[in-house]
Amino acid sequence: MGRFVSNDIVWWRQSHGSKSTVECSSEKRKRQTNWLNSILQAFRLENKIRSVERDRKAAEKKAKRDDAIHNTPVIRTYDYKKGTVKDHRTGKIASLKQVVQKGRIDLLKDKEIK
Prior knowledge:
Blueprint: E1 2-6, E2 9-13, E3 20-24, H1 25-70, E4 76-79, E5 84-87, E6 93-95, H2 96-101
Antiparallel strand pairs: 1-2, 2-3, 4-5, 5-6
């Protein structure tokens, strides 16, 4: 088997002469470039799949969080602009200053609710 190099062309010949191959370096570069492009394409596809999976998990997590927030009964509302606290179970409203600073939560409670 012999190998002959002439500029950018590589000639391969077997000794019995039945098979010969000619490969230009530009063809070799094309093959290498195509191979690298296929690897890059696979990486991009893998990143896209990971991104879609991450987005799906984030959407599920957000849905659970939203469900927990919207389905929780409101017990009290603290309105700092008006300076009031409203207990939604009893319907009573008290001063924010009395409830928060002085700990007078009893102002909002009914005698039945403890």
